[in-house]
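Case study 2.
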Amino acid sequence: MSKNLFALFLLLFPFIVFSQVEGDSATKVADPSIPSLLPPSADSLKTDSPEQTELKQKPEAPKVDTSKVKITDMGVAVAPSSMRFRAKPGKSETKYLTITNDTYYPKKFKLTFADFSMDNSGAIDQTPIGKIDNEYGLTRWITASPNYVEVKPGEKKKIAIEVSLPDEDAAYKAAWCILMVDQAKEKDYIIPPTAKEGNISMGVIPVFGFGVYIYQNPPNVKINKVEIISFTFNYDKNNRYIHLRAKNVGDGIGFCKSYIEINNINTGYSERMPLRTFNVLPGQEREYEFMLPGNIPKGKYSIMGVLDFGSEEELEAAEMEIMVE
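Prediction:
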């Protein structure tokens, strides 16, 4: 080939490639080894799948200036852990819940209420949110304001918890519920490495929450009596323990404190076991076990159980004698 023909070929070559790409069907692709002179199409700019493009467009968590606040990164705290109301029927009463964010990241929370029942051990059975199936449900008369809140790093937020009672027969009884403070977290996109149309991915979004017990005793309600109905000594190969069972025979919520005193009848050795605090709902029972010290000397003992249920006039007590061998 002569130099003139070769130069002519080089001059015409881009137009040959242009003509081939324009004439072929959409399913054909030009040889990648040949540099294209065409402007990129709109489709060729979409290098990511729709899901990946959406993921990249998600806004990042806002950066917060923490230089002016003292943060120890101890976590999030909610206080108090329980609330006691004494609202009168036809009136309202407000208390405040504090959420403290001692972390470097902003946190969002939603607040909801649910009624519950409690068994003898103190375990609760939560009623589905929005459903009231017992005469002691408080959710129908309680609100949180605001019920959705964002707490910045190092910040404390106060939430108003209001009990507003109607002047009707049902409001003249004790009532209770649980306030749930749950972290509100936006769902993340979960895309498998080989994402295809129609694929479904499963994942777990870690969140945390708090439960605050709320009790309402109207002024007309009197905690007439919380009785000790069982007081026994039991033991096995490894432990010795005192079993106490109490029942609320009054019409109000019993906020109880109980302890055990042990006295050796012969030597005068005595010891008071750690105080236990618990609540007994009207008509219900609670039971506790107090473990005796493992190094208690052998001998004959007088054991006394004392129960303070909030009465200004009396305490409940039970006594027995046991032999430790």
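Residues 75-186+205-216 form a domain with the Immunoglobulin-like fold (CATH 2.60.40.10).
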